[in-house]
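Subject: Sanity check before I submit

Could someone independently write out the structure tokens for this chain? I want to compare against mine line by line before I put it in a report. The sequence has 230 residues.
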Amino acid sequence: MPEPRRPDNTTAPSRSGRCRAWLWLALAGALLAALPAVAQQPRPAQLSAEDKAEIGRIENYLNGLKTLEARFLQVTSTGEYSEGRLHLARPGRLRIEYDPPVPVLIVANRGLLTYFDKELEQVSHVPLSSTPAGILVREKILLLSDEFMITGFERESQALRISLTRASDPQEGNLALVLADRPLELKKWMVTDAQGVTTTVSLLDARTGIELDPKLFEFVDPNFFKPRQE
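---
Independent answer below. Compare away.
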């Protein structure tokens, strides 16, 4: 699978683009309830016994993925582009830090996902379980469970792609995972939100099974240390 390159016609995200970058992780029902739903109702894919066996293989791979460190490229279907570094430690911990000029840091730990805009000095929190990121870092990943609807499964010569949504609210958004095959390796994921905007995150130079500093997943709100205005 060729490594992705920065498209020539993309631009660094504006403030609205940073908000969309946040949405690809958040996608919380409370935040998206007011947005228009995707017109087409998702339908479950017709999976063969061989498809289910391959999805089981993906489950085993993801459950065996304890730590991951990688560079990432993020591109939206509206033409916004950003880069950064990602750290993941299962269960439950994640750190996504964007390169300048995007002043965004996302940290997940102890069941909470924190979004920090360094420029605006704003901090937001959502439950990790309500985000697509929560699927990747949960203690036990069960793709073939009643919680998810598998909307697509594709098998290519050197890659596998699985698309899924939450069965309880299929129009909330769709998550697709793309993995290189034999050996399995997570390469990218795509999130399509309720407005139909797709955000693609591609992993570069990924390293797995390495020791990560626990401090990477601790967020200290800098506003707590600001002197009070008299």
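---
OP: Matches mine. For the report I'm noting this point. Residues 15-29+45-203 form a domain with the outer membrane lipoprotein receptor (LolB), chain A fold (CATH 2.50.20.10).
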